[in-house]
């Protein structure tokens, strides 16, 4: 057994958790899948940096983690602000005593529109948020990943079945989410050979979040310039989902934010120690 495999095997039995001693940035972790990911990472021993544009929600997530015996700080800011990305990396490295081990690029939202009605602002904003921001964050954190200290490092980019299969009304989102798949593979090929960095994509299907709720519920994102972007699916039936509503999903139900977070944890953990450059679909079997 090689020393590296031996370390992984031993880590699986470590009583303090599979991510013990690792420092993780999780973007968009003030709520939803991101918040659940922050909590399960902390439960497995990671020191978590909660990144979100909403400072109140970021603080809430971090406080819940610390109250439960974990270790977290909130660093709030706008992923489209280049200065914030630099600050996020700096504060994470300080929190991690000079080290960063994991980045989960989860932050984002949808701004839907059919092709012939999509504005330049819709197009540019979604591509910047889902492609540009993850790239810039990874680039800013490069000095903490391009190292040879024998410690594991992971980058996990969150995608969607819209990026794998396209989706009507989501040309901008579909392109952006397809783009991160290519980014992931490039990271795996550039940073894997010399530095052992693993990079994978997790592509979600129908997960119960504010992005998949009824648009009529009123969920929205307010941009820095005051523009209000409505979230959700227009005309979606309210109330508990029925099995027939999900006939295209073999498991006949949507996934929960916790189930989504656990999939991200699995990819970050030693259980996936020999998996890199892959796209893991978390869809309940949809699109198989």
TrEMBL record:
Superkingdom: Eukaryota
Domain Ketoreductase: start-end pairs: 22-194
Keywords, alphabetical: NADP
Name of a matching Pfam family: adh_short
Catalytic activity: a (3R)-hydroxyacyl-[ACP] + NADP(+) = a 3-oxoacyl-[ACP] + NADPH + H(+)
Keyword Cytoplasm assigned: no
SUPFAM superfamilies per the UniProt record, alphabetical: NAD(P)-binding Rossmann-fold domains
Documented EC number(s): 1.1.1.100
Signal peptide residue numbers: none
One MF term in the entry's GO annotations: 3-oxoacyl-[acyl-carrier-protein] reductase (NADPH) activity
Keyword NADP: yes
Family membership noted in the UniProt record: Belongs to the short-chain dehydrogenases/reductases (SDR) family.
Protein known as: 3-oxoacyl-[acyl-carrier-protein] reductase
Source organism per UniProt: Tothia fuscella
């Amino acid at each position: 057994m090689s020393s590296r495999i031996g370390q992984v095997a031993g880590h699986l039995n470590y009583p303090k958790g599979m991510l013990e001693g690792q420092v993780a940035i999780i973007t968009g972790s003030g709520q939803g899948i991101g918040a659940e990911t922050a909590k399960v990472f902390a439960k497995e021993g990671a020191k978590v940096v909660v990144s979100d544009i909403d400072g109140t929600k970021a603080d809430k997530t971090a406080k819940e983690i610390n109250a439960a015996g974990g270790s977290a700080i909130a660093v709030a800011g706008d992923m489209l602000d280049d200065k914030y990305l630099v600050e996020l990396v700096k504060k994470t490295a300080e929190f991690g005593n000079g080290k960063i081990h994991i980045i989960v690029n989860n932050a984002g939202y949808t701004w839907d529109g059919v092709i012939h009605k999509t504005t330049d602002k819709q197009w540019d904003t979604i591509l910047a948020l889902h492609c540009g921001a993850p790239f810039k964050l990874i680039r800013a954190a490069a000095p903490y990943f391009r190292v040879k200290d024998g410690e594991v490092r992971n980058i996990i980019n969150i995608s969607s079945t819209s990026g794998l299969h396209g989706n009507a009304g989501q040309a901008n989102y579909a392109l952006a989410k397809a783009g991160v798949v290519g980014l992931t593979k490039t990271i795996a090929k550039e940073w894997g050979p010399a530095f052992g960095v693993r990079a994978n994509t997790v592509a979600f299907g129908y997960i119960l979040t504010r992005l998949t709720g009824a648009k009529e519920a009123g969920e929205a994102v307010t941009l820095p310039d005051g523009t209000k972007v409505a979230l959700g699916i227009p005309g979606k039936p309210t109330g508990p989902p029925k099995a027939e509503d999900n006939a295209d999903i073999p498991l006949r139900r949507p996934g929960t934010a916790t189930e989504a977070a656990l999939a991200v944890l699995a990819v970050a953990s030693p259980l996936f120690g020999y998996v890199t450059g892959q796209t893991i679909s978390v869809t309940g079997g949809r699109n198989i």
